[in-house]
Amino acid sequence: MQGTRGTNSKTLGAWEKGDIVYDNNYVGWVCKNSGSPGTWESYISNTPSSISSSIETERLKTETHVFILAGQSNAVGRCEFDGGEDYPTGVMQYDRNGNIIQAVSPLDHHDEQAGTMGLSVSFAIEYHKIFPNVTLVFVPQAKGGSSYSGGNWNKGDFYYEDLVSRVNTLAAAHPDWKFKGMLWHQGEDDADSQAEADAFQSALDAGMTNFKNDIPVWDDNFKVILGGILPAWVDGHPERVQVQHILEDTPNRLSNFYFASSEAPTELKDKGDGLHYNADSQRRFGKRYLAQYLNAIGFSSKVNDIQENVDAGVMALQNIRPPEENYTAHVHTLEPETTAIAITTTNYQAPLVVYSDGGGWAPASQAFVSRGSSGRGAGTYYRNKPNGNNWFVGMPYENNDKIVFSYNNSAYIDMAIAQMSYARFSVDSSGNMGIYGATTQKPLSADPADPADGETVQWVSDGTGSGDAGDVMMKINVGGTTKVTTLVDYSGL
Fold first, then answer.
1. Same domain for 192 and 332?
2. What is the pLDDT of residue 77?
3. Among 4, 32, 6, which Cα is nearest to 17's?
4. Same domain, 415 and 291
5. Count of Cβ atoms closer than 10 Å to residue 89 Cβ
6. Residue 378 included in any domain
7. 62 and 207 part of one domain
8. In whole angstroms, what is the distance from residue 464 CA to residue 467 CA?
9. Could you tell me how far CA 165 lies from the centroid of its own chain?
């Protein structure tokens, strides 16, 4: 890795993933994929004044933001309205008659049902708080029971073409409006059979790519948030598990796509029919969609304002994602009274990625507000305390007083830090792990890699690799020879 000054992303030369180019204000670019010149992504200044001023300037703009809301019934909302807060005054919708009217539950989708509500309610409430001068407009386009396999969302299908036509008509009528993204929830009706599940990924990716090509306002700043399917409906059904995994993996396949979990920080629940989210879950889900959007646009600092009423420490641990590079990631202890902390590195490049609650990995420049050395060698880095929540930084392993998560699955967590974050999880210096509560394993569609000599690895099979669906499997390596055994035979229970 290397850091160098420059005025733009590189167009010449060979560059490695993780290389940084930055100007005198530390506005820069990070190489996302190695090559000549590779692919690059920009990031904002890391000085305190420029971060806060750029966010506040953007936050207080007076303009109109448009979001498409599409998919199937859980995007519409099938739960009864809970009597809580509805859409704030001034939040609008583009109805089926082509009018811009006040948004009320339920929105004017293809098949909304009277007295119901959806995830867009809480999304709108929290969005209005963060962007008080913005007029928020929804384009409701969801249809219960719609799917790719059923001929609804492919290019040329009715609901696909209707969405494209209505969005393009609205954009042409209001060229000054900002089309910010799409909130998408769909997949249940593409998980009715294994054949449908097998075809889902290519259909989803093609459908979204076609949307981007057919909607001119779907530019590189347009964000798409997908949501997870009801966990209880998914569990125990390989085809549903497969569709859930495809949805969750979409951000790794398509640019500017993000995933809102239905499982963390808490598992979302149904309304009693085993398929559709209840009102509490819909309100939580809307906040999770918004958290993903805020992280996507560099507003991670605002995510704390919309967190659900759950333990922030537990939320942080449940949302851990590995860094993109094969090096360890540290978290320093954050005492309650601490307002800022320092991290010192030696003989290594500056940290490149940071994790914040509810989001993913992002360039460290978005989180650090001062730096020492800007290239290889020693340096000290500071970050403002994020309202008591954990954060994770990609940098080399140094001392035992830090919480560490690494890409190669080794983990060292100081007990004091686990207690400080209120997580019911600990690892001592000898590697002994304590979990205070139930553990959940998701089935794997392929066997894990063989363990090292003298080690074991255990997993749950979905029937694709070793074992049948639901079997608990283990690999054991002794003397360099690995054997596979079935610990629990699900069919024999």
1. no
2. 97
3. 32
4. no
5. 9
6. yes
7. yes
8. 8
9. 29
pLDDT digits 0-9 by tens, 322-377: 333 322 333 333 222 222 223 333 322 333 233 333 333 333 333 332 222 222 22
Q: State the Cα–Cα distance between residues 246 and 243, nearest whole angstrom.
A: 5
56: Cβ contacts below 8 Å, ≥ 6 apart: none
Same-domain status, 261 and 188: yes
DSSP 149-160: TTTSSSTTSHHH
Q: Is residue 97 part of a domain?
A: yes
Evaluate whether 474 touches 485 at the Cβ level (below 8 Å): yes
Q: How far apart are CA 5 and CA 22, in angstroms?
A: 5
**Helical pair 238-253 and 194-214, crossing angle rounded to 10 deg:** 30
Sequence-distant (6+) residues with CB within 8 A of 44 are 27, 50, 51, 54, 298, 365, 366
Domain C-terminal end among 244, 278, 310: 310
* pLDDT digit string, tens, across residues 407-448: 222 222 222 222 222 234 454 545 566 665 667 788 888 899
Read off the tokens for 293.
Answer: 């959007």
Mark whether 299 and 334 lie in a shared domain: no
- Distance between CA atoms of residues 223 and 211, nearest Å: 12
Residue 284: which domain range? 54-310
DSSP assigned state of 176:
T
How far, in Å, CA of 108 to CA of 93, rounded?
Answer: 8
Dist. CA 208–CA 33, nearest whole Å: 23
Q: What is the per-residue pLDDT for 340?
A: 29
